[in-house]
Amino acid sequence: MTAETRPVDHVIAAIRAFLGDRITTNIAMREQHSRGEDTTTPVLPDAVAFAETTEEVSQILALCHRHGVPVVAFGAGTSLEGHVTPVRAGISLDLSRMTAILDVSPDDMDCLVEPGVTRHQLNDHLRDQGLFFPVDPGSHCTIGGMCATRASGTNAVRYGTIRENVMGLEVVLADGRVINTGSRTRKAANGYDLTRLMIGSEGTLGIITKIRLRLHGIPEATSAAVVQFPEMRGCVESVIQVMQLGVPVARIELLDEVQMACCIAHSKLDNLEALPTLFLEFHGSEAGVAEQAETVKAVVTEMGGLGFAWAADSETRNKLWTARHNAYWAAIASQPGSRGVTTDVCVPISRLADALLGAKEDIEASGLSAPMVGHVGDGNFHTVILVGQDDPAALERAWELDRKIVARALALGGTCSGEHGVGLGKREFLEQEHGMEALAVMQSIKAALDPKGILNPGKMFRN
Ligand SMILES: Cc1cc2nc3c(=O)[nH]c(=O)nc-3n(C[C@H](O)[C@H](O)[C@H](O)COP(=O)(O)OP(=O)(O)OC[C@H]3O[C@@H](n4cnc5c(N)ncnc54)[C@H](O)[C@@H]3O)c2cc1C
Fold first, then answer.
1. Is the keyword Iron-sulfur assigned to this protein (predicted)?
2. C or N: which end of the chain has fewer Cβ atoms within 10 Å?
3. Is the CB of 328 under 6 A from ligand 1?
4. In the chain, where does the domain assigned CATH 3.30.465.10 lie?
């Protein structure tokens, strides 16, 4: 290395020796990797590297570790809290080309995949075997990214989040060593749980290169329904009762009247009105589904629900859930040229009405537009606070609103993030949520696994 060569330039040259043109300093590619789906100020990485094997990831990390160069893992870049923005530049390590489904075991109901596989790709592959993978964020994200953010989706109320559906991982550590975590058994009491440590670590502790996932059988019967309410309280109270009764709903999603107006316009849900609404789905045997639906119908009727509109055939069901998965884009499309600051609080189910109705009051007081949508069976809901692309004052007001909604959720025993993660946007709440001592333990784990602080620096912790 010559005196004037920056360490990162040396590392880029060394990586080029084995990746060839799969490492690039092309400006358009660097811009594409400068931020995720959020309002963070973009920062260009020095280069973008597309790895295709564990061996390549290991070599890249060993080089970056030796020369103290930052590495930010990049899946599909759909995260919402500044996770992928390379705040200290360095290498954006793109794993989206690692798309092999390595093994599916119908007998054990598990599979082994590379991190760039998407849930759509996996479910298309599994369909003929009567199996499915249930974790379904409303984005075209990668399974590696989902593990790294501890993601969930509309099915989590029945099937759990990614945390409950990952059995083990292959992880490349900061210095290039490769470890395997977990096991294929349904139970294991065999040492510290490194799988759970990596799940939700947001690329700060290691790079996930293989994932063993738990799979589920496609249910014998599925039916979906929509219920609308004249006002929000009845809608939320219905959810609380359904959950407290222990009805094993597969999905129970709430959209407020503002979000419904956006979805009706965006997804052509012409038979529905802009009212607080629940989208529901039931899985099981024919008799089980009918029984669940009857119980829920009785609850929502008592709470003032305006009838139960069935979506029994798969085409109507798909239209409904596609509209739900596109809710974020429907919100953004309602104010052309806007971006969204997304809140993600989660509270114990008994406190859901306080959290949600309180958040609606905060939104009203702020004067901002913020459609609301929630995986309410888990006590988790989002507001997409809409701000103009170039309106720093509105952006500051949006963050203030976010802080208010989080403060209420924390006071109710909840968390600042049910599923999106910390990134840059939620770092300020961690101390309040976990306490100084727990945060110090987290930082000592980070220091032990990544002593030079090269993995996604600046994230999770404020210093
Ligand atoms: C329209 C929309 C809807 C969404 N709906 C949901 C939802 O319902 N539920 C939900 O949970 N989230 C949701 N999200 C957020 C987002 O899709 C998830 O956080 C997703 O898990 C991110 O995956 P990704 O592949 O895009 O990861 P990226 O954004 O590329 O990366 C996210 C983080 O993971 C790290 N990372 C990525 N791959 C790896 C790897 N292989 N090893 C180690 N670290 C890695 C990155 O460094 C970064 O810190 C939504 C986002 C959008 C835009």
1. no
2. C
3. yes
4. 101-217
The answer on pLDDT for 278 being more than 90 is yes
Instruction: Please identify which residue in the block is written with the tokens 């529905």.
Output: 272
Residue 132 alpha carbon to ligand 1 centre in Å? 20
The set of residues, in sequence order, having a beta carbon less than 8 Å from that of 17 and lying 6+ positions away, is none
The Å distance, Cα 229 to ligand 1 centre, comes to: 32
pLDDT at 1: 53
Pick among 3.90.1150.10, 3.40.50.800, 2.70.98.40, 3.30.70.2740: CATH of 335-411 = 3.30.70.2740
Tell me if 93 CB under 6 Å of ligand 1.
no
Range(s) for CATH 3.30.70.3450 in the chain?
230-329
The rounded mean pLDDT for the chain is 96
| Topology, domain 101-217 | 3.30.465
C-beta separation of 181 from 171 below 8 A: yes
Q: Measured from the CB, is residue 153 less than 6 Å from ligand 1? A: yes
CB of 75 closer than 6 angstroms to any ligand 1 atom: yes
Integer angstrom CA distances of residue 378 from 345, 371, 429, 441? 11, 19, 20, 28
At 185 the pLDDT is 95
Average pLDDT rounded to a whole number, residues 210-216: 98
Which atom of ligand 1 lies closest to the CA of 325? 3
Give the pLDDT score at 91: 98
- What is the rounded average pLDDT of the residues 74-96? 98
- DSSP line for 240-259: HHHHHTT---SEEEEE-HHH
